[in-house]
Amino acid sequence: MKYWVAFKGIVIREMWRFWHQKARLVSALVRPLLWLVVFAAGFRAALGIAIIPPYDTYITYDVYIMPGLAGIILLFNGMQSSLSMVYDREMGSMKILLTSPLPRPFLLVSKLVAGAIISLLQAYAFFLIAWLLGIEVPLMGYVYAAPALLITALMLGALGLLLSSFIKQLENFAGVMNFVVFPMFFLSSALYPLWKLKESNEWLYWVSAYNPFTHGVELIRFALYESWNPTATWVTLVTTVLFCGVAIWGYDPKRGMQQKKKPSK
Amino acid sequence: MSLALNVDSLRYRYQQKWVLDNVNLQLEQGQFYALLGPNGAGKSTLFNLLCQLLQTRDGAIDVAGHSTLKAPRKALAALGIVFQQSTLDLDLTVQQNLEYHASLHGMSSKASKAAIERELARFELIDRKKDSVRSLNGGHRRRVEIARALLHEPAILLLDEASVGLDMPTRDSINQHIRGLCESRGITVLSSTHLVDEVLPEDHLILLHQGKILLDKPCQQALDDEQVGDVKSLYRNLTTSGEAA
């Protein structure tokens, strides 16, 4: 019972924070909408996407990038959570979580799930705007997308958690954007199908094919079109567990909260 | 009288430097303990070990009879902690901050509401519960933090330089309030400070200097033993001579 109470408390707290930081929702939506409205409009005429699974017909570019842009919302929200954890640690409020009488892995996973739920809400807000702009998917696709979005959000949140356990200062966060977020986004199938990338650079193709974010995006894409991509599901799940495990190890008090400080013995 | 906190032969080092060296403490229930020491004496490290933000196997810590190594969660449940740096979420209201803490201690909604009302009333903050923490002044924020630390009715309250940055009247008021808790609720308080004027003759004084306990006895008794009139002189005598209690 107390685990449920604590989990609920952590989720509600994230909701409150999200509610108090309305600019966060706006900025989370502006980025993908710019891509959808401006970038995709420019490329729409130039690029048509051939018939590739899960699509059963030719599609326009804006239809293609819609799942990838949902992915970018999850990616940036995962990083935002990571940023907020580094901030919380610097400001001290992380201590309240870490000194509560519950197992630390449970607390960190609860925080991860809470962040994933916020990501999910943002992704659906984006789907709603995309639908208003005329980009539709099958109605049941929106339902099937929920678990796909949740798993992907958990994976990206776990990556954020992992980064936050190793980033010592808030100032180091710019490096995360340059060395983690942007390569992860551009070296994925979010903006272009991987076979197109293979035509121009095989090396980049293989890097993108092994990028876990690619699998997250494909998981969402297939779910939106009422299909299931088992490879993407397994890669996303395994990566989530892996990231999560390392992050929990990173927050182990035996390693110390402050990385510079080494425990005795 | 049973022990609320027992620290036995505790040692801790950062890199090659021992910041706590053979620390022994026995804190009795319902007593107020002032932990006095200059910056860098090892007070915050001791607190981080007590609340398990750091861990060591050099020595043992028992909180309300629970070992931090063998029963870490039971030990944490018996602690109320106020950190040196504010740990309130500025974006949330007072009530939301307290509800979050109560949920982390597994308190039901009903129990948490009652406890929040009780503690806010005690600290005269009832009318501020819907206010954002950001809108509170430093003194009120500290009161909220202490109220929060008491929500789950801990056996021991740890205050890590809780009065830092507060003006004199606010400091006095908070300190008076905390001392009252020992009598009214039988709670043990360990309050660290580097300000000698915060230690009263009736307190039990623990002096930590360069990672070692130099003194652990009632303040008045220490004053008499050293034949000095105030805590400042006592502090100066002991830290310059390095005399152990």
Concise structural overview:
The complex is a heterodimer of chains A (265) and B (245). Chain A is an all-alpha fold. In chain A, 75% of the residues lie in helices and 2% in strands.
Describe the structure.
The complex is a heterodimer of chains A (265) and B (245). In chain A, strands 1-2 form a two-stranded antiparallel ribbon. In chain A, helix 5 (104-132) crosses helix 6. Chain A has eleven helices and two strands. Chain A has one domain (2-250). Chain A is mainly alpha-helical and 265 residues long. Chain A has helices spanning 2-20, 22-44, 61-91, 94-98, 104-132, 139-166, 173-186, 194-200, 202-210, 212-224, 230-250; strands spanning 48-49, 59-60. By secondary structure, chain B is an alpha/beta fold. Chain B folds into two domains: 1-78 and 155-245, 3-Layer(aba) Sandwich (Rossmann fold), CATH 3.40.50; 87-153, no CATH class. Helix content of chain B is 36%, strand content 26%. Chain B contains eight helices and ten strands. A six-stranded mixed beta sheet of chain B has the order 6-7-8-3-9-10, sandwiched between helices. A four-stranded antiparallel beta sheet of chain B has the order 2-1-4-5. In chain B, helix 6 (168-185) links the parallel strand 7 (156-160) and strand 8 (188-193). In chain B, helix 3 packs parallel to helix 5 (138-150). The interface between A and B is large, with 36 and 41 residues.
